[in-house]
């Protein structure tokens, strides 16, 4: 039930359909965002709306897809999707995709469509995971295809290895996957950026093999505010094993402690104090309890 914003109109959920020959369904060229709205003292508010819209447009630009709407219209579409569905908290999925006018790999003559769906999705992981942390496995699938050429785009086609990695992790009794880059350095989770804390210094991979996460950026701001030194640099897998604390960040996962990687306990094997502090600051920010 509910309404989906589809090419400028709000249509009932069940009618928001595409043809089986939709180009993106066949070849995977499209781009999307994952956005959240939270309840704040001023009513429901979309966290970092403009940043998500900007990244969607950057992704489309990288893919050479011409967005048929302005940024203002895309912002407004997201606001409408939350409001018209009467949601107080929501996950939002804007997605730009190519139409069914033609097959083959030529894309310049295809129409670009845009949808924004919004639904209630309270927590990606259990509330327990937020407190106790999760078990992660380094994946046999890498982020290699995304490095350099495409890591700035949140493109549909970039998620094949992420999906394979996550499902492999779940099948082996873990909750998330850690993907390495082409050269074997730590890249990111299936849909999250990673941070580690060692000797009071926060480290996160530089932006060559991971998505330019909006939550990552918030965490870097909070760390600076707390006076925690931050290093954006290449991280090795074994540095995660011996970290004092480690956590993932993402719009869906929010701030998620990692308690174990590949069977090695990280730090005390539970949410560390710095993770807890940054997590608290993040929840305050999204709920409008801190200046934005
Ligand atoms: N890395 C990948 C591969 C993602 O899909 C996401 C989610 O969008 C992130 C990192 C985290 O980005 P953000 O904090 O902007 O949600």
From TrEMBL:
Any one Pfam family match given in the protein's UniProt record, by short name: Aminotran_4
Enzyme class: transferase
Keywords tagged on the record: Amino-acid biosynthesis, Aminotransferase, Branched-chain amino acid biosynthesis, Pyridoxal phosphate, Transferase
Cofactor: pyridoxal 5'-phosphate
Gene Ontology biological process: aspartate biosynthetic process; isoleucine biosynthetic process; L-leucine biosynthetic process; L-valine biosynthetic process
Catalytic activity line of the entry: L-isoleucine + 2-oxoglutarate = (S)-3-methyl-2-oxopentanoate + L-glutamate; L-valine + 2-oxoglutarate = 3-methyl-2-oxobutanoate + L-glutamate; L-leucine + 2-oxoglutarate = 4-methyl-2-oxopentanoate + L-glutamate
Pathway: Amino-acid biosynthesis; L-valine biosynthesis; L-valine from pyruvate: step 4/4; Amino-acid biosynthesis; L-isoleucine biosynthesis; L-isoleucine from 2-oxobutanoate: step 4/4; Amino-acid biosynthesis; L-leucine biosynthesis; L-leucine from 3-methyl-2-oxobutanoate: step 4/4
Any one cellular-component term (Gene Ontology): cytosol
InterPro entries with a match to the protein in the record: Aminotrans_IV, Aminotrans_IV_CS, Aminotransferase-like, B_amino_transI, BCAT-like_C, BCAT-like_N, BCAT_family, Class-IV_PLP-Dep_Aminotrnsfr
Domain of life: Bacteria
Molecular function GO terms recorded: L-isoleucine-2-oxoglutarate transaminase activity; L-leucine-2-oxoglutarate transaminase activity; L-valine-2-oxoglutarate transaminase activity
EC code: 2.6.1.42
PANTHER family reported for this sequence: AMINO-ACID AMINOTRANSFERASE, AMINODEOXYCHORISMATE LYASE
Function per UniProt: Acts on leucine, isoleucine and valine.
Family stated for the protein in its record: Belongs to the class-IV pyridoxal-phosphate-dependent aminotransferase family.
Protein name according to UniProt: Branched-chain-amino-acid aminotransferase
Species annotation: Hydrocarboniclastica marina
Taxonomic placement: Bacteria, Pseudomonadati, Pseudomonadota, Gammaproteobacteria, Alteromonadales
Underlying gene: ilvE
